Amino acid sequence: MFKVPDHQVAGHQAGGGKLGPLVDDSGHFYKPLQSDQRGSQELAFYRAFSTDTRIPDHIRKFFPVFHGTKLLEASDGSGLSPHLALEDIVSSRINPCILDAKIGARTWYPQAAEDYLQRCLKKDRETASLELGFRISGLQVHGNKETGVWKPDRTVIQRGSVDETKLTLRKFVSSNPSTDSDIKPDCCFASTVYGGPNGILAQLLVLKSWFEEQTIYHFYSCSVMMVYDKESLLQGKKQGAQIKLVDFAHVIDGKGVIDHNFLGGLCSLIRMISEIVTGPST
Amino acid sequence: MFKVPDHQVAGHQAGGGKLGPLVDDSGHFYKPLQSDQRGSQELAFYRAFSTDTRIPDHIRKFFPVFHGTKLLEASDGSGLSPHLALEDIVSSRINPCILDAKIGARTWYPQAAEDYLQRCLKKDRETASLELGFRISGLQVHGNKETGVWKPDRTVIQRGSVDETKLTLRKFVSSNPSTDSDIKPDCCFASTVYGGPNGILAQLLVLKSWFEEQTIYHFYSCSVMMVYDKESLLQGKKQGAQIKLVDFAHVIDGKGVIDHNFLGGLCSLIRMISEIVTGPST
């Protein structure tokens, strides 16, 4: 009944006796509660957020629905253990294309312990985060028959330079995604996936407006997931592209200040996607 | 002919045999070129920026006019030395009220040397920068006859908590500014200085729009100066409040990415000022 998800592009993965999330056929995604502070912090966030009346509906839809916790046999065989029961964002998609972008130049919060801070800072400097304000943590794209599914190495992707990251964002909406640098991404889904009144760019702009105002939460080390279904797209179906925020183990109280770290990174991502939608396709 | 400026709230100050900027009665402000890399970097910025045709006029006006360099007797008595000749932003004001806000949670750039980075990081953590996305580097306010000029200790101001910084931003537009915590700032100039179609908030929003787009420069450790003249205000004169960007010793090439660090901090400042203009005066 419970199985390892087919389409995970970032985060800890189950399989091979490791601890990771599970899914079932009811459309739920079960994320094991990390045993340290992170688990309790993520659970506390979901509990507070799901009943927080200050969150408008048009923003709430960008967050996975929370269905409480559930005791499940952990994927690493360690026995019954608590899992967050969440909305499975990709279950309804046949050929889901997914991109996970961890937002913010800084993944650590001001009050963080010194060793944690230095570890995060090192990774922010080694990856694209510091320079770009975000890093792509992973992605998969359903290409054409020749290219198949393109799921590049995560450690390479997250260290991408400015130009490489821009190229990856193009490949995400192309029918010919490939690591081969001779193949120029055709960006043939850019206008339908990124563009349009309900496209990813429009959704990111709505999210941005909220981040310019809200001083409730600061989202450190949190990702924007972008999902679209290649199959629906080719058949001209209505099920459009979607963004969802995920990973809330490092959310802290905003204390009356906007989340300038998240907002800055989000604006950087918006600028790059906007360039793809409106700019020349070179 | 050359003298120490009357109204400096941040940065190195001349006087007492120290090196600092000078002014003359022609409306020029002479900033000594720092002898290390910072001096040459700031000069390079002014030279590049003043001839950069990509900068629209409505943005250029937020930068001091650059009049080249001039050899002057340095204020520390060390003899003739090169100075940047800039527009003196406060010379035309009788009783100038000035606030200097250093923008960005991070004052160091990704390529910075390790010791410089650690020194800046330490200061960003000790001051309000990391938490607020900016820190007030200094200010002076012309109060009423009883309070006189309020020019609080810079080291105290820049370490202000969220609430203290919000309070300082209120005091900047009050007729009764004071360090005394029993005196509640009256915010009686908030609507004319911060608000209105040409007020500081409107100017900051224009600047923000540019930062959402521009990928030319990254402004590290740069300040937004806000200036208004108490005298003109009381007499109902037209000379309104003004913002200017200052301090460009750490400007680097944007390399196709927006300045998400500056933009995030700017949005945080905008949010706080907006709260003063539109919110309850408590």
UniProtKB/TrEMBL annotation, chains A, B:
One of its GO terms (molecular function) is ATP binding. It catalyses: 1D-myo-inositol 1,3,4,6-tetrakisphosphate + ATP = 1D-myo-inositol 1,3,4,5,6-pentakisphosphate + ADP + H(+); 1D-myo-inositol 1,4,5-trisphosphate + 2 ATP = 1D-myo-inositol 1,3,4,5,6-pentakisphosphate + 2 ADP + 2 H(+). It comes from Pyrus ussuriensis x Pyrus communis. GO terms for biological process: inositol phosphate biosynthetic process. Belongs to the inositol phosphokinase (IPK) family. It is an enzyme of class 2 (transferase). It comes from the Eukaryota. Residues 1-20 are annotated as: Disordered. Keywords: ATP-binding, Kinase, Nucleotide-binding, Transferase. Inositol phosphate kinase with a broad substrate specificity. One of its GO terms (cellular component) is nucleus. It holds the Pfam family IPK. Its EC number is 2.7.1.140, 2.7.1.151. This is Inositol polyphosphate multikinase.
